[in-house]
Amino acid sequence: MEITDVTCVKLEGTLEEYPEGILQERLARPTDVYDEYRAVGSRHVTTEPGGPHPLTQYFLTIETSDGLRGLGGPLDRLWATATLEMGQDLLGQNALATEKIADVLFGRWGDAITGVRAKAISAIDVALWDLRGKHYDAPVYELLGGPTRDTLPCYASMLGFSVDPDDVRQRASEYHERGFQAQKWFFRHGPGSGEEGIERNLALAKAATEATPEHYDIMFDCWRSWGTSYTRTMVNRLAPYEPRWLEQPIDSQHIDQFARLTADAPFPIAGGEHDTTRWDFHQLLSAHALDIIQPDTYYTGGVSEATKICTLASTHDVPVMLHGHSVPANVHVIAAQPPTVCPLVEFLIQRNARYQHFFDESIVPNDGVIELPQRPGIGVEIDENTVERKESYGLE
Ligand SMILES: [Mg+2]
User: Fold this and answer.
1) Is the entire prediction scored with pTM above 0.90?
2) pLDDT along the chain (396 residues), means of 10
3) Most exposed among 106, 110, 169, 304, judged by the fewest C-beta atoms under 10 Å?
4) The domain defined by 142-371 carries CATH number 3.20.20.120
5) Ligand 1 center to 88 CA (angstroms)
6) Ligand 1 center to residue 10 CA distance, Å?
7) CATH number belonging to domain 3-16+52-137+385-394
8) Distance 329 CA to ligand 1 centre (A)
């Protein structure tokens, strides 16, 4: 099965309906230590409930000599550009030889184990696994050795919702009742917001915890924005709420500081969504830096690399909570791993409305669990009815 073409398409469309309250609030950012950055909301933030929301996304297609097409995405523009640039090396290769292709791509580009090139390799690898599934007429998780379960439990990731305590109480209760097994909320404030920000962060934690039953799991995400000193203060203040985990309080290049925080905190510390490949995670795991690791299938090197990282994590008895860029890709990796290794699917409520908009079938939870997809490959295709405008980019 020879690779004959690699293409990226830019799709434009409109999200007519999306979760009420979409993009009301952003998460804390490391740049919030600067007054002018702290004052800026998300570029997406809108106070308009409902209403049309324009979407632009890029997708990768890999075609083979026997007429099959593998799909990767959604991607952004820079990501798609890197994917096409690296896609030159795919022409003429055996599409089933994913290990050789990854080895060639990692070898050809000196900076390929990090950043946008690692993301490009990831998208290529997912599209190749989509092709492999279509070639063998089987869902990807079957080819990875699964399934380990018939359904996958999900946690609701509440990025974009208001963090006003009254709104949090209402939504936390609502999403618990919808069957989600746990919820993750995103802190808005960091060291730049002083004591007032600390109080607001604690008000969010209090509201989410009190609005849900006593042993229901609540997690909190800090998106690299806290720094070690602030994190130590917050860990003490958050202890009464017993979160299931605290996510990415600092950047994971500070491996020693992460290891000390993890050793000292009375609840688990998670991170790793911006780390890539087995080599990053080998370092983090060897240093006992995290209680839970969170590689993203679409950032870390694809289905192939995410699977290797799961195996590595299992040797440390560290659970993997895959970061949720692509639920359609993640469910295959998760379904092929024991529940102790991959316990939950991250389902970003608002992102999935956008990221799965152009697909003919959405992979979404029902009553808090995702039924394993049965179609060959990854199991999603572009629904041309959703495309208002399309532009194709081929190899140079
Ligand atoms: Mg996160």
Assistant:
1) yes
2) 97 83 82 87 57 90 98 97 95 98 94 93 98 98 97 97 95 97 96 95 98 97 96 98 98 95 98 96 98 98 98 98 98 98 97 95 97 98 98 90
3) 110
4) yes
5) 32
6) 26
7) 3.30.390.10
8) 18
